[in-house]
């Protein structure tokens, strides 16, 4: 246990209180991680990356969200991935977005 967490648990008088407080701290940390992952999802663009690297990055972020308890629906992953592509892919992106089912 880190010193910071230990300090926050010092005021607890019972094992149950320690457990409740530790769980609360973990949940807050998880919510913060989810927000970071969602931000990463919005900020990730292909840019100069090779396509394989870009797609792996998007999949990794999706996996991290799922592991944190906030799985990303497949159609949202597809949307964010297409959104992260450069202008040279616009024709393909438009065609894919015109499809009714992205999953």
UniProtKB/TrEMBL annotation:
Pfam families: Retrotran_gag_2
Protein name as catalogued: Uncharacterized protein
């Amino acid at each position: 246990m880190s010193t910071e967490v230990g300090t926050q648990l010092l005021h607890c008088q019972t094992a149950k209180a320690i457990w409740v407080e530790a769980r609360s701290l973990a949940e807050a940390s998880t919510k913060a991680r989810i927000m970071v992952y969602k931000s990463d999802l919005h900020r990730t663009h292909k840019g100069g990356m090779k396509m394989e690297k870009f797609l792996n990055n998007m999949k990794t972020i999706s996996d991290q969200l799922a592991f944190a308890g906030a799985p990303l629906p497949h159609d949202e992953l597809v949307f964010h991935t297409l959104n992260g592509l450069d202008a040279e892919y616009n024709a393909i992106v438009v065609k894919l977005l015109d499809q009714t089912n992205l999953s």
